[in-house]
Amino acid sequence: MSAQPQPMVPFQGGPPYHQPATLEEVRTLWIGDLPYWADESYLNSWFTHTGEVLSIKVIRNKITGQPEGYGFVEFTSHAVAERILQSYNGTQIPETELNFRLNWASFGIGERRPDAGPEHSIFVGDLAPDVTDYLLQETFRVHYP
Q: Whole-model pTM above 0.90?
């Protein structure tokens, strides 16, 4: 028996997920290195004081249904997400020995050039804390220009 995919959990009666067309419209952050027991309610407790959370989704293993250690938090605006990213990233998660690991969620952003051909993406996880976006891009660019 396989677990069903978990939907984005809306908070405060927010609308369903907003599909950004430009980088300035991105209002969702990726959050990683979560404790194995962290779920949507727990993540909401970290950000509820902002009053700006629209939805939270913790990604789960399709077979076991257990959290995979990362998820997405959607805020009401790009500015709010930017503020959270700048103020939380790298700081200690309350009641844990872990630090917040946040980044922009880039899925679905219309950045492609018209002549770029089909777009393919993969998720790369469990990276060392010193791996930057640039280092990751350059690593793949060598083989996939």
A: no
